[in-house]
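Discussion board: Methods & Data

I've been asked by a reviewer to show the raw model output for two of the constructs in my manuscript, not just the figures. I'm not sure how much to include, so I'm pasting the format here to get opinions. Each protein appears as its amino acid sequence followed by a line of discrete structure tokens. Is this the kind of thing reviewers expect to see in a supplement, or should I convert it first? Here is construct A:
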Amino acid sequence: MEQFTRTRNSVLFLAVSLAAMGVGQLLLSFGRDFINAQQPIDWAHWLILIGAVGGAISISEFGHGRLGRIARSLVVIGAVGFGGMVAIDLLLWTLPAEPVLDDALSAALDAPQVAVPFLWVGPALFFIGLALVAVEWLRLSVWAAGMFIVGTVLSGVGAATGVDGI
């Protein structure tokens, strides 16, 4: 019974964490002017960061097989990627908009050393890890695991492409 309660609490914590990420992504979809108007706190990016960290923490209860251990590692690496992305975005949010500064930041973001781990691959690994955890859930509930896999894939595609509404 204790294991069931811990698992249920972990699922609830994961759901809340992913919901925080979803709200953060929704806030981002309103555009840069909306994000800049959130002074003094950039709620969108903080919610994404809280969701990524919460997802990495809650996932420790799941995935006891080989696939689950790989999935947990991917989720943690992805959460670090989200942390880097949020740090970059918060830095951009706090700096004044000047043409020279904009050019320097654009060059940094175009550099593969920054863009690949923090904007493309890192966040994608988070969602891939979550989907792999759900694959282990298939034996418990095909319907719930299928919904979770579809949701993580759509969230990953939305985060990677920036398409509003996904």
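Construct B, same format:
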Amino acid sequence: MNPELELLQAIQAGQTDFTRTGAWLDLFLQLAEQRIEQLQRVLQHWAQQSQSTLPFAALPLAKELADLCAEQHNPNLAELTLRLSQSLQNASAAEVAPGLQRAIVQASEELLRQLHQHAAGVPVITPPHILAALH
């Protein structure tokens, strides 16, 4: 069944916490994977350009990912997306050191890995060095 249709049926049936339904998880995963793949393409292009400014497209994608992940019952996933979004906000306002640029790209790769872990029901733990590098 289509995740959007299943979710609509759950809402119409009066389920108050539809965020724990399989349809919600399927829809979340579908949307989050699309956004992270788009963000990774933007970041890869940015990383290949020497001394280029962060493309604006990265900001709304990261914000949308942070909002999507905040609705999941997974604080590690939510924290990583929030820190990534904040780092991209900071990167858009100033010149970015190559180390931070690499950390941002690495965090996006880690986010995709964690997304797949979350989908499989495996506990998600963000390596501390990834979070620390985003500061």
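Answer (T.O., handling editor elsewhere):
This is acceptable in a supplement if you add a one-line summary per construct. For B, something like: The CA atoms of residues 10 and 16 lie 9 Å apart.
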